[in-house]
Specification:
This protein is 50% helix and 11% strand. By secondary structure, the protein is α/β, with parallel strands linked by helices. The structure holds cytidine-5'-diphosphate.
């Protein structure tokens, strides 16, 4: 295969705890690309709306780097709040330019989220849609929360995840879905290393290689 002339732009989408965040970080490291976790933007908007009483669309328009450093953004409460504000079209519109600018860097980039391959970077030469069964994802998130010392029970984690999946895939504005040309990676029976190896093999089949020494 001839070497592609385009820069490497990788769009990674998928539901909660599918492994897309870990995969995106590792793919970015391997290919020497900057990485944007777009979920963090929606988490920050949900947080500013809930904790500072800001209007979500205004919070999205005025989002600053410092807002992304709030430690509470990683928790499940922030995930639910994110999923609620993410259904508001003005919030999505106000976050669009930042994401598109990030994707347009000359270096190339890796972005992960729910609508990267469909709305933010439909032109990306590499699109991955990372899934796993609801059971496998709930197990992962439950273990992760316990390791962080968060008191919870598995049925609650599973119910909240199912609710968030439903909200994210049924909303009218940029619902979570795989782009028609996305590579589907089901990680139900894969660990992070296997998912990473499968993604790198797919990207290399497209003719992209990591930067040389
Ligand atoms: O890490 P996890 O998959 O649990 O969530 P996340 O990627 O941080 O995203 C949190 C929420 O933000 C999702 O449930 C979506 O509702 C929303 N989101 C979105 O609508 N579009 C994106 N590109 C990224 C996140």
């Amino acid at each position: 295969m001839s070497r592609p002339t385009s820069r490497l732009l990788v769009a990674i989408d998928g539901p909660a705890a599918s492994g897309k965040g870990t995969l995106a970080r590792r793919v970015a490291g391997h290919f020497g690309l900057p990485h944007l976790d777009t979920g963090l933007l929606y988490r920050a908007v949900g947080w500013l709306a809930g904790h500072r009483g800001l209007d979500p669309a205004a919070a999205a328009a005025g989002l600053a780097m410092a807002d992304l450093a709030e430690p509470g953004l990683r928790g499940d409460e922030a995930g639910q709040a994110a999923s609620k504000v993410a259904a508001i079209p003005e919030v999505r519109a106000n976050l669009l330019k930042f994401q598109k600018d990030f994707a347009a860097q000359a270096s190339g980039a890796v972005l992960d989220g729910r609508d990267i391959g469909t709305v933010i970077c439909p032109e990306a030469p590499v699109k991955l849609f990372v899934t796993a069964s609801l059971e496998a994802r709930a197990d992962r998130r439950y273990r992760e929360l316990r390791e962080r010392g968060v008191e919870t029970i598995r049925p609650r984690v599973l119910a909240e995840m199912a609710e968030r999946d439903r909200r994210d895939s049924e909303r009218a504005a940029a619902p979570m879905k795989a782009a028609p040309d996305a590579y589907l990676l089901d990680t139900s029976d894969m660990d992070a290393d296997a998912a990473f190896a499968a993604a790198v093999a797919f990207i290399e089949r497209k003719g992209f290689r990591p930067p040389g020494p």
